[in-house]
């Protein structure tokens, strides 16, 4: 009795340069349709590489779902006629990609200009998957000029390339945060230990004074109190404060710690013609070069910062100074 054997990988049916489409139609391997779904498969492999290298859990989960969806895209393209129903690319799949794109953008600061990839392997892998997806999209568009291809397939590939761009940026940003945090913590170590100065309770007291000042001048603001590594200990958004102020306030607090100066002073240095012009494009766009960020000192050592956003530059500075003054009062106790 013959033992059970695993199915063979090779079939020898494609030795003459032809293959079968789903449904049994035989077609040349150099056909546009085969090139289209083959390139989708290639994009999926590059996506798998990015997923295997990614450290962000959210990125891993999104990539895993998209890998499965690409099987649906490839299967639809491997049919000689668009499927009338059943398993096929749906508008809901495109909608999920758009939701993921928006969710990813909320995780990173805004960027300007072109991005040079390759800071970490996962970022490079996702950018590779993006360019392959763009090529797949171009092939599918060409195919649609000659044969019937449902619009959902083209829209899916178009949105996917955008999502892959965002996944690459999220991975790079998450890596940057870890590197910066480790570097700052190393600098503020004393005797091999890090002294925690800005506790949550202290951050609440600082924020309460800043909020009261914001109420006095009648401007809803976002208040961020960060630790000595520039990481938010407390983030408070007053009712009516701008959503954009969430990232800006956190950026101001980070900048005050990272550059050891009030962001009001940085705004002069970073102006066109200044010695630090363009610094806002570094550090993944986290540097915010205008007033409202103030470092908090303890014995000539930066142990935290306050970042304020929501009003004019002058109003942000006023509220930040009120919070910083509260910290100074706490030190004198």
Plain-language structure description:
This protein is of the alpha+beta class. It folds into two domains: 18-185, Hypothetical Protein Ta1238, Chain: A (Up-down Bundle), CATH 1.20.1200; 200-332, Haem-degrading domain (Beta-Lactamase, 2-Layer Sandwich). The chain contains nine helices and six strands. Strands 4-3-6-5 form a four-stranded antiparallel sheet. α1 (32-53) runs antiparallel to α4 and α2 (57-77) runs antiparallel to α5 (151-187). The longest helix has 37 residues, at 151-187. Belongs to the Cob(I)alamin adenosyltransferase family.
Instruction: Specify the CATH class of the largest domain.
Output: Mainly Alpha
CATH architecture of the largest domain: Up-down Bundle
Can you tell me the residue ranges where pLDDT is under 50 for at least 5 consecutive residues? 190-195
Number of strands: 6
Average pLDDT taken over every residue: 86
Tell me the overall shape: elongated
Largest sheet properties: 4 strands, antiparallel
Proportion of beta-strand residues: 5-15%
Protein structure class: alpha+beta
Terminal Cα span? 88 Å
Helix content estimate? 40-55%
Radius of gyration over C-alpha positions, nearest whole angstrom? 26 Å
Q: Counting H and I runs of at least 4 residues, what is the number of helices?
A: 9
CATH topology of the largest domain: Hypothetical Protein Ta1238, Chain: A
Strands of the largest sheet, in order across it? 4-3-6-5
Q: Topology as H/E string?
A: EEHHHHHHEEHHEEH
Count of the separate structural domains: 2
* CATH superfamily heading of the largest domain: Cobalamin adenosyltransferase-like
Organism: Desulfofundulus thermobenzoicus
Enzyme class: transferase
GO biological process, one term: cobalamin biosynthetic process
EC number: 2.5.1.17
């Amino acid at each position: 009795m013959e033992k059970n054997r695993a199915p063979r990988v090779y079939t020898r049916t494609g030795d003459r340069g032809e293959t079968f489409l789903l449904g049994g139609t035989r077609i040349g391997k150099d056909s546009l349709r085969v090139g289209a779904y083959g390139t989708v498969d290639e994009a999926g492999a590059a996506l798998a590489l990015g997923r295997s290298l990614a450290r962000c859990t959210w990125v891993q989960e999104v990539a895993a779902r998209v890998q499965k969806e690409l099987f649906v895209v490839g299967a639809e393209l491997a049919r000689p006629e668009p499927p009338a129903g059943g398993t096929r690319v749906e508008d809901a799949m495109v909608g999920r990609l758009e939701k993921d794109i928006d969710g990813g953008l909320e995780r990173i600061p805004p960027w300007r200009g072109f991005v040079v990839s390759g800071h970490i392997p996962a970022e490079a892998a996702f950018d590779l998957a993006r360019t392959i997806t763009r090529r797949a999209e171009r092939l599918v568009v060409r195919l649609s000029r000659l044969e019937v291809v449902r619009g959902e397939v083209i829209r899916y590939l178009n949105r996917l390339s955008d999502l892959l761009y965002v996944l690459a940026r999220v991975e790079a940003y998450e890596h940057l945060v870890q590197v910066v945090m480790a570097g700052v913590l190393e600098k503020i170590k004393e005797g091999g230990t890090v002294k925690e100065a800005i506790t949550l309770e202290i951050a609440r007291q600082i924020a309460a004074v800043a909020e009261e000042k914001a109420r006095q001048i009648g401007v809803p603001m976002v208040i961020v109190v960060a630790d000595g590594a520039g990481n938010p200990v407390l983030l408070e958004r007053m009712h009516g404060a701008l959503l954009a102020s969430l990232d800006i306030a956190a950026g101001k607090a980070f900048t005050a710690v990272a550059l050891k100066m009030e962001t009001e002073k940085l705004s002069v240095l970073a102006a066109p013609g200044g010695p630090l012009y363009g610094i806002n494009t570094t550090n993944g766009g986290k540097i915010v070069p205008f007033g409202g960020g103030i470092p908090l000192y303890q014995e000539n050592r930066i142990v935290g910062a306050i970042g304020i956003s929501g009003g004019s530059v002058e109003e942000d500075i006023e509220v930040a100074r009120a919070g910083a003054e509260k910290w100074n009062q706490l030190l004198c106790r």
